[in-house]
Amino acid sequence: MYACGSNADSAMLSGINVKKTVCFAYIISGMMCGLAAWIMTSRMMACDPTYGNGAEMDAIAAAVIGGTSMSGGRGTLWGTVVGVFLVGFLRNALNLLGVNPYWQGSALGAVIIVAVLAERISNMKNKKIKKRRESMKKKVLGVVLSLVMTAGLAACGSTQQAAPATSQAADSGSATAAASVADKGDYTGVHIAYLTPSLDVPFWTYVKHGVEDEVKKAMPGAEVTVYDSKDNANTQLSNAQDALTKGVTGIVISPTDSASCIQVLDAAEEANVPVVICDIGTDGGTYLSFISTDNEGGAKELGKICCQ
Among 280, 251, 282, which Cα is nearest to 156's? Predict the structure, then answer.
C-alpha cells in the first residue's frame, strides 16, 4: 500500500497489483466509515444523513498532523492516532474558549497548511542532499570512465602509427603527423568525438565533462566535440557520419541502443577510425574497447548497505 501511494507506476513494474491494492484500501475506508456511523448513531440515539458533515477536515488534519504525507507513500497508524487526540484536544480547547465554530474550521485549516509546508520543506532538503550525493557519484564515475577511454584511444593512436605502408597516402601522412606530435607531447590535430545518447540525462552530462576534462589533461592540444543524439538512433548515426566527415581521430560512443550501434561501428571501421564504447553495449561490429558499469552488482551492494 505504501508503494502504491508513493508511485503507482513503479509499484506496478515491481509486480504489485495496484488496482487490487487501491480497491482494498477503499474497502477498508468504507468499513471504517460504517463503524464510525454506527458509533455516532449509538451516541446520539438517533440517525440523520447529515451527521458527519465537516468531519472530513478533522480526519485530514489528524492524518497530516500524525505524519501522513499528502503526496502519499508515508504515514503510520499510531501517528494518526496521536493526530486524532491532538485534533480532539484542539477542538475541545476552542470550544472552552468560546471560539465561533466557523473560526474553528479556519484554525484546523491553518494547522493543515503548516503541517504540509513543514513536509514540503523537509522533502526539499532531503532531495537536495540526495542530488548532491548522486551528482558526486556520477561525476566520479564519469572521470573514471573517461580515464579508461582516453587510455584506450592513446593506445590505439600508437597502434595506428605502426600501420602498414600499404595504407592510403592520406592515412599514412596523418599517422606520421600524429606520431611526431605524440613524441613532443603535443596532440594538436587530434580530434575526439563523443556521441552521447542524450544530454538531458545527468549521467551522460557528467560522462561528457569527464571525457572533456581528461582529454585536456592527458592529450594537451587535442579537440573534443560532443554530439547529442536526443535519444534517437538515426540522429546518432547522422552525428557519427558528420564526425567522420570532419576527420576525427577517434570516437567515444554511448549507443542509443545496441542494434543501431552496428551501423556506426561499420562506418567508423570503413574510415579506419577507432571506437570506444561506453556503458551501453552493441549487438555486433568492430570496436577498440568496451567500458561498462556493473549496475546490477552496484544496486545489490547498495541494498545490502541500506539493510545494514
Answer: 251
